[in-house]
Amino acid sequence: MPELRPLLSMQPFLSVMHAKAHSTKCEIVWSGRNLEGAGSTAGEEVEMVNSFLSRCAITTKYMTKSARNDMLTVHAMGWNRRKQENLHVVLAKRYVKTITMLEGETQKMKDTCEELGCPEDKVQQWVNDVRDWATNDNTSGDNQSLQIEKLFLGLCQKKAFLYRQTDSNKIRQLRRKRLRQEKTKLLAAIRQYNTGQPPETEIQEEEVERRLSAEQQTTDSLIWPWEVQSDESVSILAQKKVFDAYMGKRRLVEERAIIVREMRQHCLYLRSQADKIRMQMQHVSCGGHSDMTQEGERWIS
To answer: Which of 57, 156, 161, 280 is the most exposed place for a label (fewest CB within 10 A)?
Structure first.
């Protein structure tokens, strides 16, 4: 099918929430928030359908295979019908929400550039610098720094899957105990690394604990001291803030275009349905037979 050919050139990307459990460079390269064409999707929309169908799990587990397929098919058709009936309302709400968020992100980007002293003609250069920094692998080979990164990313991933992969409070309690032990190892490794380091290259324990805290989730990325080049004229931390603001605005601009295209397609669909109804009404009024039910013909007449 020619209309599906662009799907062959699609790029994979990490969902916005899942990307937070990866390293900063990996998040810059593969997060859906930073890839062209992704819009403002979180990458978890398929879970909405799975959540809707999961209500069948208790009853379908005792059914035969054919009855189970019929039950899931009926629920999937119900999901599609509900989406079709409410699509015009959902698109209108999404458009208003996107426009409001776009105004906020535009002002946020303007304030960020003024705060960091980045002129408008330098924004694209800073964005390219951050991408080059993320794709350039400057691994120092220091076992101590690699161990710190490994412990930190391991904690982030285990905290992200704490409730997703466990359904028992007893198992969660054991995993929380292991998380506390690994966090103690991480803080000890950070203190050992900071010994003998100048103040500007030390790892801030408060920043690490803030990133690991479930009560203080943040969108700021953690950049380690060994990842910052000493010969950079502008701090990579400042460039990363401009990069995040720029990408947030770009994704909302894409989302606005996507919603407008979906609105246009939905209007064309409704017009085609209206034309079919007119043809059916004309056919019935002329005394012809229709494939509709008697109730449908009664409502048309």
So the answer is: 57
